[in-house]
Amino acid sequence: MSKKWLWALIPLLIVVVAVVLLWFRGQQEQAFVVPEHIIICLDAGHGGDDPGAVNGERQEKDDNLRMALAVRDKLESYGFENLTVMLTREDDTALELQQRVEIANDAKATLFISIHRNSGGGQGIETWISAEKLRPETQLATYIQEGLAAIPMVKDRGVKSGTASNPLASYYVVGNTKMPACLVELGFIDNVEDLVLFEAAFDSYAAAIADGILQMVKLK
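RE: above sequence
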């Protein structure tokens, strides 16, 4: 086949890929059925004697809880009568990963969102799903990540599957919850720009996460 024909096929291939992606997205949405009463479980990572990532006196567990409470307040401010928001912890309490999962599963939560800060010298926001990419949580993570990435100055690290060290594994709270779940890393606690942005855009972060959740349950 000549190069001329190859170049002519490129637009067709782009269209085919776009159609397949749209179909895949539609299949994900169809696989998730919004219940009559919606329960959102927000998980503030770490807590108690587990500070999470640390930068001087700043501890990840505190940032996580502040954000989880802000997202809850944002969701509740809409006044949807068919929506309940619960938290795995509302104070500086230590919880095992299994306890967090059990809280969500026992409540038969509709969605589970775990909130964290990153560390390790990078920069930007990313959202993690399980290694099983076909689960409906891909759409949940996409809604949240797109909202966060639209905030000025945010470096978009995208939606990722698996774990940072193993793409075939899953973070425990994401892989063991029975509902669509994702883990949001709201910037690097050891990066100056991310620290400044976390405070400056705090309300925008909370709103983006809340809006992504509402999109998933067809309330926005």
